C-alpha cells in the first residue's frame, strides 16, 4: 500500500492506494467519529462491493443509498433522494457518508455530505480509474444543471480517499479508457517525465498490467494532491487541471449527459485545446499529432461530434466556470508538458478550431 | 448609522444598521468585486425595494430573480429556479448575489451563492425584523426538506449585511411580532440586562418607536455577532441561539411550512423549553409566567397547536440537527438570562411538556 497526503492544514487527509484495501477496516474506521454511516453507491457498483464495504462498519448503525448509474442522474432531484434516505434513517451531524463508486457517485455523495445538516464527514471510495486519479481527490463536489456541467456544488474535502486497485478488475474497457484521459492530462499540463513514461507504457495500461496501473494512479494522485494543496479553491494553478474540460463540458452538455463519458469528452476537448495551441504557434504539427496519438492509443475519441455546431459550442462555453466578467479563459499548451491558463488567445483561432468539425 | 463587525478572520464582515441605507451605494459597492450582480427577492418585497437597490448598482450588469413569498417555497425546487436564472443571465464566479427580503430570501439566496459554481460572493439586505436580528447574520444558509426545517444547507458568510431600518415601515404586524420572538431570545439565553430593557420597552417596540427598534436590532446583532465569532460552525455555544427552535421546528414542519411563522413557532417553542426547565426545577413558576408574558406582550402564541400530538412532536424532534448519535440535546434555561445546551434532561419531564397541549 502507498500513502499520499493532501496537505490542507487542519483539513489535510490521506489517500491510500493498493490492492485489497476494501478488506482493511483499520484504514476507514479512524475516520468515522460518530456511531452511524450512510454508504452512497449506484446500481452497478453496489452489487459488486457494497457488502465488502459494510463488513468494515460492524458495530455501527449503517444504511445504504443506491442511485441509478450514469451522468444523466447527477442532478438536484437525485441528490434529494440521498437527503430523503438520510432523513428517513435519522442520520445526524455525526453520521459519516461513504461514497462508493465512480465520479458521479463521488461528486454527488460529496455534495450531499457538504449540504446535509450543513455538513457531515465523508470518505471517498472510488471504483473507476477516472475517479481514482481525479475526481475523488481535491474536494470538488456537485451536480450538473441542464444548462451546464458541475454548475451547482461545493468545495468540500473528504476525511480520506481509499483506492482499492482490485476494483478496477470489474471496470469495463470504455470506462478504463475514459480514466486514462485524465491520467494523460497530468503529463500534458505539467509532468513531461510522466508523459514520456505514458507513451512507453500505454499498451501495458490498456492490458491492465497491475504495476503499470498502480504507478499511473499513484503519480496522478501525487500531481493532483500537489496542485490542490497549493490552490484549493482554484484561484490560480488548479485551473490547469481543467485542460480540455471547457471544450469537453460543452460536448457533454450539448450531447446530453452520459452519451459521451466525461473522459471521452476530455480527450477530444484536449485535442481541441492542442489544435488552438497549434493555431497560436505554441505547438508544432508534430506535437499536435503526438497529442492525438496518445489518446488514440488509449482508444479515446479525438474528433468533436459533427452534430454540435460552432455556435452551440460557444454558447455552452460561455457558461464555463472559467468565465470572469464575461471573458472566457482557456487552458492551453505552451508546449508539451506545460499548460497555461489564458484569456489572451485569438478568437479567430478558437473559431477555426470549433468550425472544422 | 451604526456598524458592527462579525469577527471571522479573513471572512470578517460588517453589519450596517440605520435609516436610509438603501440609498447609500457607497456601503454596497466596495463589496462587489466583479462586473455583474443578481438580486434575489420575492414578490412582496421586490415591488417595494427592488428599484431602490438597483439604483445602487449602476454601471454593472444586473439581473433579478423574484421568488414566490413564503416559507413553503424554501425548497430545493425553488432554489433551482435561482440557478436557472443565473445561468440564463450568464452569471459567473465573480457575480455578486444580493439577497433582498426576509429570512426565506436570505437563507435561499445565501445557499444559492454558496453553491453556484461552487461559491460566489453575496450581500444580505434583510427587510424583516426577524432577518435583521437573526437570520441575515452568521452565515447559516439553506432550504427545508419535507422531513425537516433547514436540513439542507451550508455555513457560508456574506460580504456584508445592510440593515435599512426604514424598510420596517412596510412590515405587517404579524411579521413584526415574529421578529420580536428572536429579539427576546437573546435576552433569555445570555443578556439579562437586555431582557430587563425589553420588559420595559415592549410597548414602545410594538408601537414601532424608531429608537426602540433600532436599539433592539443593534443589541440583537451584537449578541449574534459575538456568538458567531466564537463558534461559527456550532460546535458549542452557538447552539444556544436555538432556544425554542427544536420545539419550534417541529411545529413548523408538523403544521406545514408557512402556517406558523418561524418567530411564532420559536415563541411557543421557547415557552415549552421554559416549561421543561421549570419541570426540571431550574425556573420558578414566576419565571415561567414571566417568559409566557413577555411573548404575550409581543402578541405571540404561547400554546402548541392542539392538532400536533406528543408522538408527532417526538418524531420531528428526533431529526433535529442537535441529535448526535441518536441523542437529542435541547437548549433549556438554567435561569432567566442563562441558556444551557443539555442532553441530561428527564425524558418524562419532556413527555409531560409535550402531552399537556
From TrEMBL, chains A, B:
NAD(+) binds at residues 69-74, 103-107, 127-128, 140, 149, 167-170. The gene is aroB. This is 3-dehydroquinate synthase. It comes from the Bacteria. Gene3D superfamilies: 3.40.50.1970, Dehydroquinate synthase-like - alpha domain. Residues 65-177 form the 3-dehydroquinate synthase N-terminal domain. It comes from Leucothrix pacifica. One of its GO terms (biological process) is chorismate biosynthetic process. Its EC number is 4.2.3.4. Belongs to the sugar phosphate cyclases superfamily. Dehydroquinate synthase family. GO terms for cellular component: cytoplasm. Binds 1 divalent metal cation per subunit. Can use either Co(2+) or Zn(2+). NCBIfam families: aroB. Catalyzes the conversion of 3-deoxy-D-arabino-heptulosonate 7-phosphate (DAHP) to dehydroquinate (DHQ). Residues 179-323 form the 3-dehydroquinate synthase C-terminal domain. It is found in: Cytoplasm. Its cofactor is Co(2+); Zn(2+); NAD(+). It catalyses: 7-phospho-2-dehydro-3-deoxy-D-arabino-heptonate = 3-dehydroquinate + phosphate. The keyword DNA-binding does not apply.
